[in-house]
Amino acid sequence: MEKLRVSAVSYTNTKPFLYGLEHSNVLDKLELSLDIPADCAQKLIDDKADVGLIPVAALLRLPYYEIIGDYCIGATGAVNSVFIFSDVPVQQISTICLDPQSRTSNNLARILMKKYWNIDPVILQEGEADAQVLIGDRTFGRKQEFNYAYDLAEEWMNFTGLPFAFAVWTANKPVNEQLKAELNKALAYGVDHRVDLLKTMDKRADFDIDDYLLHKIDYVFDDKKHQALNLYLEFLKEIDHSLISAV
Ligand SMILES: C=C(O[C@@H]1C=C(C(=O)O)C=C[C@H]1O)C(=O)O
């Protein structure tokens, strides 16, 4: 049987899922690759993978998709790894750099800037700016370097009263039901055994990995996070539309 091509995020936040896969038999049925989020998205768009833990912003670029399973990379309040780092208070940001590894958080920043903070900074692809979006392990221990650090999951919660889902397990074609169930069971095992996983991981003085995996990342894709996902996609369509019509 052909193996299912799976692309998962290469960051620490995905370790519980990998732990679950490594402790299950389903791994033999997968061709697993670890990629930065932007590449997980692109692989599903280009049909170089069948299933991925993909940034939710990329769902709008898939002609067919199914969110599979009960798990995600989410947060209920502060996530502690998705920030706008800034030298100035948010109201004074006039230029901002996005993170090339991100799809969801770049667009979350755009949504919050336009609809919540009512600011309209120039978005730069690279170079010096007042502020930058940064996600994942590269943010660990860096908060103190900046005058202001806006946690985007926390700001989304302040704005909407909802939790957030950054990335969801998605298929770009129908997948065998039994395989889907096996995959979901492996993911559940990993989420349920985070304490065991943490015992095997190196600790850092500048970042609390235990708190991050146990309390900041919220892995269960529940109704509230689904509601948040739908709202986020509505906002994103609005913003993209206004960009297109402004051209
Ligand atoms: C919480 C995070 O969630 C992530 C953010 C993503 C994005 O911005 O596109 C995609 C996948 C997740 O890894 C993080 O990476 O810190």
Spatial gap, N to C terminus:
48 Å
**Can you list the ligands bound to this structure?**
the ligand C=C(O[C@@H]1C=C(C(=O)O)C=C[C@H]1O)C(=O)O
User: For this structure, what is the CATH class of the largest domain?
Assistant: Alpha Beta
User: Which overall shape is indicated by the principal axes computed on the Cα atoms?
Assistant: globular
Spans of at least 5 consecutive residues whose pLDDT stays below 50 are: none
Biggest sheet architecture: 6 strands, mixed
Helix content: 25-40%
Strand content: 15-25%
Look at the helices and sheets and give the structural class.
alpha/beta
Family: Belongs to the MqnA/MqnD family. MqnA subfamily.
Keywords: Lyase, Menaquinone biosynthesis
Catalytic activity: chorismate = 3-[(1-carboxyvinyl)-oxy]benzoate + H2O
Protein name: Chorismate dehydratase
How does this model look, in words?
The chain has 247 residues and is an alpha/beta fold. The chain has two domains: 4-76 and 165-221, D-Maltodextrin-Binding Protein, domain 2; 82-162 and 241-246, 3-Layer(aba) Sandwich (D-Maltodextrin-Binding Protein, domain 2), CATH 3.40.190. It is 38% helix and 23% strand. The protein is built from eight helices and eleven strands. The strands form two sheets. It has a six-stranded mixed sheet with strand order 2-1-3-10-4-11. A five-stranded mixed sheet has the order 7-6-8-5-9. Strand 6 (95-97), helix 3 and strand 7 form a beta-alpha-beta unit. The structure holds the ligand C=C(O[C@@H]1C=C(C(=O)O)C=C[C@H]1O)C(=O)O. Residues 9, 11, 13, 37, 55, 73, 79, 81-82, 102-105, 135-136, 166-167 line the site of ligand ISJ. Residues 9, 11, 13, 37, 55, 73, 79, 81-82, 102-105, 135-136, 166-167 line the site of the ligand C=C(O[C@@H]1C=C(C(=O)O)C=C[C@H]1O)C(=O)O. GO terms for molecular function: hydro-lyase activity. This is Chorismate dehydratase. InterPro entries: Menaquinone_biosynth (IPR003773), MqnA (IPR030868).
